Protein: UPF0227 protein ACFOE0_10235
Organism: Shewanella submarina
Amino acid sequence: MILYLHGYDATSPGNHDKIRQLTFIDDDVRLVSYSTQHPRHDMQHLLNEVDKQLKLSDDPNPIMIGVGLGAYWCERIGFLSGLRSVLINPNLWPEQNMLGKIDRPEEYADIASKCVSQFRDKNRGKSLVILSRKDEVFDQKPISDALGEFYEVIWDEEQLHKFPSLGPHLMAIKAFRDLT
């Protein structure tokens, strides 16, 4: 089972396309949606929804995949739920770059300060990061610097921020999911 977390643009047709692409490696892909507007409520909702989906599946090796803001949540919720995660162009600092787009962006900083201390060190090797060199929204170098010490980072030379084509990375995602 793959649990897919969309980015900030929850209604983008690209989400459907990515889910369709992911069915090439697992026919059980489930969208886990959240508001994108209320960080503290989103966190609790995502924890509950992931727990519910895990109870509804007998898959011994589920994985979470998130894009953009969804990758921010994917890393944290995956860690708290004991799941491997794939982070595609993650938005690591929404409290800085989502001002004016979401209610209470400062809650992201609050969440980060209350998260398990050194959670990336405790999550070492349990996330795979895929970054776009042509991302037109964020500079991916600081993101690579922040995550590269803890997780494998794969660079894509073609995709833009919304990362419409997962095709070139499906086998790497599948291999990462199949690790035991």
Summary: The domain at 2-177 is CATH 3.40.50.1820 (Rossmann fold). The helical segments are 13-22, 39-55, 69-81, 94-97, 106-114, 119-122, 140-147, 170-177. DSSP finds eight helices and six strands in the chain.
